[in-house]
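sorry to bug you again but im stuck and you know this stuff better than me. theres a chain ive been looking at and ive put its sequence and its fold in C-alpha cell form underneath. id like you to explain what the C-alpha cell line says about the fold, in plain words if possible. anything you notice is useful, everything is just below.
___
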Amino acid sequence: MKRDELEHAIHAACQIVRQEAVIVIGSQAILGSFHEDELPEATVLSVEVDVRPLEDDDAESLATALDGAAGEWSAFHERFGYYIQGVGRRTAVLPHGWHERLVEVRTQRVVGGEAVGLCLEPHDLCAAKLVANREKDHLFVRALIDADLVDATVLRERLLSIDKEPERVDAALRWLSGHTTTAPGLAAPRPQQP
C-alpha cells in the first residue's frame, strides 16, 4: 500500500461513517509516520486498512457499515485493489497513553472536504501486533526493528505499560527478547503484579 492509498481510504471511511476523523489501527497505520519509500517491503504488503470509527455504539454498527460499503470483496475493493476493515474498540490491545501519541494524517479531496486519520504511533502499533501474536505480525515488527524504524527498548516499555491480557503480553515480551539482541535488558522478566 502507498500513502496516497491510505489517505484515500481514510477519506472514504470518514464519509461512510459521517465523522471528521477515524482511527487507523492496523499495519498500514505505519504509513502515517513513514512514506512507503522509507519502509521495508514486508510492512506495506497489506491491502487492508483497519479503521475504527471515533464514535460507535456497543453493537459496532459503524464498523459494520465500513465493512459493507468498502470491505473485502466490496465494489470499493474491486475498484481500488485495497479495502477498509471496520473494527471496534476491543479489536487491539494497546499500550497506556496510545491516544496521546496518535499521528494525524490529513487528507484534502475535491469532494467532501478534509478528513483526518489518526494513525497508531509505530511503537504502539508494534506492541499491538506482538500482543496479537501472529506470524505476519512478527514479520512486520521484525522488519521495522531491522530497518531501525522502531526501537526495541521503547517497544518493550510500551508492552510493559499494557494492563490487559498479561499472558499475551508476556508472550510478546518473550518474542521481543528472543528476536532482539541490540538493547541491554530486553530479556529482563516482566515485573510481577501485586
Observations:
- The chain has two domains: 3-119, 122-179.
- Helices lie at 3-17, 61-70, 75-80, 122-132, 135-146, 152-160, 166-179.
- Confidence is low (pLDDT under 50) at residues 182-189.
